[in-house]
Amino acid sequence: MIQFCLVGAGFIGPVHAANLAAHTGARLAWVVDLNLPAAKALADRYGARAGSDLAAALADPAVDAVIICTPPRTHSPIIEATARAGKAIFCEKPIDLDMAKVDACGRILQQTRTPFFVGFNRRFDPTHRALHDAIRAGEIGRPEMLILSSRDPEISPPDYVAAMPYGIFYDTMIHDFDMVRWLLQDEPVEIFARTACMLDAKENPHRDPDTAMVVLKMAGGALVHINSSFRAVYGYDQRIEAFGEKGMLISGNQQATTVERHGRDGIRRDPLLYFFIDRYTQSYRRELDAFVQAIAANAAPPIGFDDGRRALMIAEAGVQSAKTGVPVALSA
Amino acid sequence: MIQFCLVGAGFIGPVHAANLAAHTGARLAWVVDLNLPAAKALADRYGARAGSDLAAALADPAVDAVIICTPPRTHSPIIEATARAGKAIFCEKPIDLDMAKVDACGRILQQTRTPFFVGFNRRFDPTHRALHDAIRAGEIGRPEMLILSSRDPEISPPDYVAAMPYGIFYDTMIHDFDMVRWLLQDEPVEIFARTACMLDAKENPHRDPDTAMVVLKMAGGALVHINSSFRAVYGYDQRIEAFGEKGMLISGNQQATTVERHGRDGIRRDPLLYFFIDRYTQSYRRELDAFVQAIAANAAPPIGFDDGRRALMIAEAGVQSAKTGVPVALSA
Amino acid sequence: MIQFCLVGAGFIGPVHAANLAAHTGARLAWVVDLNLPAAKALADRYGARAGSDLAAALADPAVDAVIICTPPRTHSPIIEATARAGKAIFCEKPIDLDMAKVDACGRILQQTRTPFFVGFNRRFDPTHRALHDAIRAGEIGRPEMLILSSRDPEISPPDYVAAMPYGIFYDTMIHDFDMVRWLLQDEPVEIFARTACMLDAKENPHRDPDTAMVVLKMAGGALVHINSSFRAVYGYDQRIEAFGEKGMLISGNQQATTVERHGRDGIRRDPLLYFFIDRYTQSYRRELDAFVQAIAANAAPPIGFDDGRRALMIAEAGVQSAKTGVPVALSA
Amino acid sequence: MIQFCLVGAGFIGPVHAANLAAHTGARLAWVVDLNLPAAKALADRYGARAGSDLAAALADPAVDAVIICTPPRTHSPIIEATARAGKAIFCEKPIDLDMAKVDACGRILQQTRTPFFVGFNRRFDPTHRALHDAIRAGEIGRPEMLILSSRDPEISPPDYVAAMPYGIFYDTMIHDFDMVRWLLQDEPVEIFARTACMLDAKENPHRDPDTAMVVLKMAGGALVHINSSFRAVYGYDQRIEAFGEKGMLISGNQQATTVERHGRDGIRRDPLLYFFIDRYTQSYRRELDAFVQAIAANAAPPIGFDDGRRALMIAEAGVQSAKTGVPVALSA
Predict the structure, then answer these.
(1) Closest CA to D186 of D28, D319, D310
(2) In this complex, which of D262, D264, D268 lies closest to C267 when CB atoms are compared?
(3) Per residue in D191-201, pLDDT tens?
(4) Residue B46 distance to chain C (closest CA, Å)
(5) Which residues have C-beta within 8 Å of that of residue C144, sequence separation ≥ 6?
(6) Has residue B23 got a pLDDT over 90?
(7) Is C100's Cβ below 8 Å from some Cβ in D?
(8) Whole-structure pTM over 0.80, yes or no?
(9) What three-state secondary structure class fits D156?
(10) Strands A237-244, A143-151: parallel, antiparallel or unpaired by DSSP?
């Protein structure tokens, strides 16, 4: 039974807490949040202890692992403290927004030999996983082009956006950068990016890019396109298309039911599932299970520090390309 | 070059006329209709002669073949006259509504050795044909169940309905009875039918059945279901599902475009093609071509008199079952 | 917290046990099975008590409710004992195979005012539920035809089949009979059924019907078709199509992923989910939740004794029609 | 009745000849090809005159219009001669490969006031047209992103490729550049392109780019992605996706039938139509009809010289970007 401390009671925290509660090999022991009432509310639901002081939780010898789901800029000190306390780490992406801090984390993790997992949950989505397995099994031969649609139904609140400029790279497409590396088992050597502000001033007061198109060139020669938006009114649009010498694979969207409605104006099916909580329910459960199994088996978690660092590096280069208007080289 | 006389300028007549005009091996020589102006209007469009007297056209030695597309109750005298004149016959279904008349036609056709074709056009629809070929190729092993949806978007005008009571059997499902025989290469030994009047008195003043469900038992053991309606507001609904020991084949509906529209309320595609003229455009062309090729090659047309007679026999038994409420046996 | 005793550790028992374990308002207290090791194995997984004697469990005052998932022929004595012990009942369908016993159960349930629920889980499937809600909301106006495909991927083991002749009616289509009543909010007044043995002697040694077609006439006039098979090699085929004056609704099948594979030979998608455990995962969870909520609120469970009795009555009449070859009247 | 001279009996020539023959308002009078036997073979099929000397045909006062379907590098002298002869011009794309020659043609066309049409047939495809109409009708509000997949099933023969380096821009994506302008009613201000040689040396001996990804920035702000390949083994893959503030529209691919095949390994549908002849049958007919109608009505053809010139200009800039590795600006 792996005992967890969850840091960050908001946003994705409750999802991880519920999955921990339902997991037969894990237990939620602590919830830590600077906002103590929020920590308490979540902890009480699952019979866990609550606190606003991470040190107290880390001092609890019962705690085996920490799930970090606080805002990205707070990750590195939490990673450092947790690593020094000798607990395994499940960290939401991105590791941090500042590459220097990420590298500092990397050094500490290495020194302390801390098991570290980055929450790129999409790798655990059954449909994306089936696409991955089909590519790896050679169904389309050599992959030549990859096209990813990565669109959110709505933009985050203004203060969240303000805290992470170019979040469409750091927070959203970072998932796609990871998917590209995972699906192609290859590294990009160049990124070109173009962004736009399509939302109006009310929805996007900080005029941070809310729309983006990216072209990546991979070391092995494959070409990759990613498009992203913060306003797909029809739901969470998450498609991946892999084109190769022997065919094409498409990982499509998902809907709540399979009902078809035939009327005078056509055939209507359900809208797409609305957002990541709806679409990636299973992938959150499965990534947690993968982490628990790795820790229980004393094995390396299946997505490591370098995966998190690489994805951030691509995001950084993408932002640079978007700002300068020219392609940016990446070392494979 | 096979020269045709078309009898019946209304309804499906213009479709056949246009297909004749576009066919490189055929020519429309005559249009005959009791309504002479209608005959003229159609004939003029294609440089053909027009008349209201069938005898005159049949006396024209240039005429090789006659297409009969008048109302069903007028078919038998036209068939007889045409056979006696030594011309090949392309006859719209049903051959006639009266089995005694049909049998009389059969005797004359046999005596005169007249090439005879019944216009069960659906056998020439590419999608139904692909289903047929897949069954015959053994893709689903022995076919065990067949389910046909046969729904028109609207009911015929009241006088048309009055002229052919139980038209849902004689005019509509007669196509399905033919499809069942063709797809399974087997004959039914029993039919059970239930009908209903679902349309209101304004749409269906004669209270002729406008909705029907049928179960057939085939000599070889397969079970067949057909459902039919005269009011599918969403378009011409023509599906066939073949279930067998090794799988299932579905011949689905068709739409004008493949456009998908994603909005807040779901994903919308085009409605179904509206009616048989829209859906079976290709099958009308191909059945004519099959007839022309057979005549040109002095071969038997691919759908013969017995096919037309058998389908009528099943329709008759279906009407009897619908009226008596019990299954009716058919001799295979 | 509602405490449960589960009777019958095999087959569907473990599904209910797992759902009870995950439910925040319920607890699995007892597992009873004549096969004590089986009861123990299941009970141990969830920290429950195990026994082979139902009386002992029913004597436990902590037990609030009993889930009956033993073979159908054993249901009535368990129902009676449970009702006399004053516990609420969640009973798998069918209530029993013998109408006299069912009626005896009904009298006892009424005398003891025992809350009783029949496990017609399909009513809780999100897709079928969406179809139901759309019909009830008037999306297709008056429903005129209902077509249900109800096909299992494989036949049950020979001894299971031997214990329940005509199980395709009593065990499989009984679900569809319930769906028809629920979707149309109407009762059938006539049933016609035809069956066949399509499986070979090895798969179906008792030559019990493995294939069936049914036509129902409803009191309100709607026509219903059900087709069923015990060998859909392509997976669990569970479709419902509702046709009405304003359109058509289809509740379609489900697949594990949305991956599309484009190759030279066409476009391939996943096969259907294999069987009911795969397809109806959510509906089992939701039906349990509905029962728990009803018991907790002291309200009548949403599917009652009469629903179970009616479905059995239709199944009985269907078997009679299949045996006699003529339609059988049902009192609405 | 508009009388045509067709120049170029190979490749797409026979398609235009057949459409002319079937058109009630047009007639094929001449077929001209340097290869006289080829001209004769095609001309004989439709009762037209054949020649290897364009001047003779242009001297025929019966000829109203000329369809140019020779290789691109031969277009400009034919355009000039035809314009000087006072005949209307239907010219296959691209107008020419050399912008200076295109501009020279433009001057002559203007001087001679010659009606000029460029054969961007995709504008007449019913599905793309429906997408266009939906965008123009405001169904998705302001279009923000456009994604085009433009993939051929096979590469052209080596000598064809050798005659037109970077043909993936000049011959294939030039269609997409036109679609972008037509769908968005806007001009690009920047293009970025990356290409690759994915085919092996046997298929692509000249190592001309056979794979490409493009990003366009439009004057109005929209972002556009095009991806293209010369080897989609699964058929002619021609999709357009328009994303906007109110939703998304997708113009999908097409298949020969709607048959679904359900087996143990999944659900299989037909492959895509194989190539442009199969997919764009209707659009070739409709573009000819649009041209005939314009000429008959003395109106300007619906796709003019400037449309052809603009598309070439974008292709040229794309090639430059692909060669230099940086984005290239375009004047809107």
Answers:
(1) D310
(2) D268
(3) 999 999 999 99
(4) 40
(5) B196, B198, B211, B229, C221, C222, C223, C243, C244, C245
(6) no
(7) no
(8) yes
(9) coil
(10) antiparallel
What percent of chain A lies above the pLDDT cut of 70?
100
Q: Is D190 on the interface with C (CB under 8 A)?
A: no
Cα separation of B114 and C182, whole Å? Answer: 57
Which residues lie below 8 Å from residue C110, measured CB to CB, with a gap of 6+? none
Torsion C164-C168-C169-C173 (CA) sign:
positive
CA atoms within 13 Å, Cβ hemisphere of B120: 31
C265 reaches D (C-beta below 8 A): yes
Of D182, D164, B47, B211, give the one whose Cα is nearest residue C142: B211
Go through the domains of chain C in sequence order and give each one's CATH number: 2-114 (3.40.50.720), 123-280+310-329 (3.30.360.10)
Give the count of Cβ contacts less than 8 A between chain A and D: 97
Instruction: Output the CA angle D218-D219-D221, nearest 5 degrees.
Output: 65
Bond into D94 cis (ω within 30): yes
Is the minimum CB–CB distance between B198 and chain C shorter than 8 Å?
Answer: yes
C-alpha span between C284 and C273 (Å, rounded): 16
For chain C, count helices (H), then strands (E): 12, 15
Residues C300-309: tens digit of each pLDDT: 999 999 999 9
> Can you name the residues that pair with C244 across neighbouring β-strands?
C143, C247
* Cα A240 to Cα A246: distance, rounded to the nearest angstrom: 17
Residue whose structure tokens are 């033993």: C70
In this complex, which of C22, C258, C262 lies closest to A248 when CB atoms are compared? Answer: C262
Alpha carbon distance D227, B179 (integer Å): 44
For residues B69 and B8, is the Cβ–Cβ distance under 8 A?
A: yes
Distance CA A282, CA C222 (A): 41
Prediction ipTM score: 0.95
A contacts of D247 (beta carbons < 8 Å): 233-234
- Res B328: pLDDT: 98
Tell me how far CA of residue D258 lies from CA of A28, B253, C261, in angstroms.
Answer: 52, 7, 17
Question: How far is it, in rounded angstroms, from Cα A315 to Cα B299?
Answer: 71
- Chain D, 123 to 182: residues with Cβ < 8 Å from chain B are 126-127, 130-131, 134, 139
Q: Is the Cβ of B234 closer than 8 Å to some Cβ of chain C?
A: yes
Residue type, A101: K
Structure tokens, B303: 């759908």
Q: Which two tokens stand for residue D231?
A: 């080897």
Residue of D267, D270, D273, D275 to mutate, testing the C interface (most C Cβ within 10 Å of its Cβ)? D267
Mutate to test the interface with C, among A132, A259, A268, A270 (most CBs of C within 10 A): A259
Contact between B257 and D127 using a beta-carbon 8 Å cutoff: yes
Which own/partner pairs from D317-325 qualify as long-range (CB within 8 Å, at least 24 positions apart)?
D317/D191, D318/D169, D318/D173, D318/D177, D318/D191, D318/D193, D318/D212, D318/D214, D319/D166, D319/D169, D319/D170, D319/D193, D321/D191, D321/D192, D321/D193, D322/D166, D322/D169, D322/D193, D322/D194, D322/D195, D322/D209, D322/D212, D325/A327
User: How many inter-chain contacts (B to C, CB under 8 Å) are there?
Assistant: 97
The answer to whether the Cβ–Cβ distance between A130 and C259 falls below 8 Å is yes
Q: Residue B332: pLDDT above 90?
A: no
User: C221 at the A interface (CB within 8 A)?
Assistant: no
Peptide bond into C94 cis (omega under 30): yes
Share of chain A residues as helix, strand and coil, in percent rounded to the nearest 5: 40, 25, 35
What is the side-by-side strand order in the sheet with D49-51?
Answer: D49-51, D26-32, D2-7, D65-68, D88-91, D116-118
Q: Pairing mode, if any, of strands C260-263 and A247-251?
A: antiparallel
Query: D180 near D258, Cβ under 8 Å?
Result: no
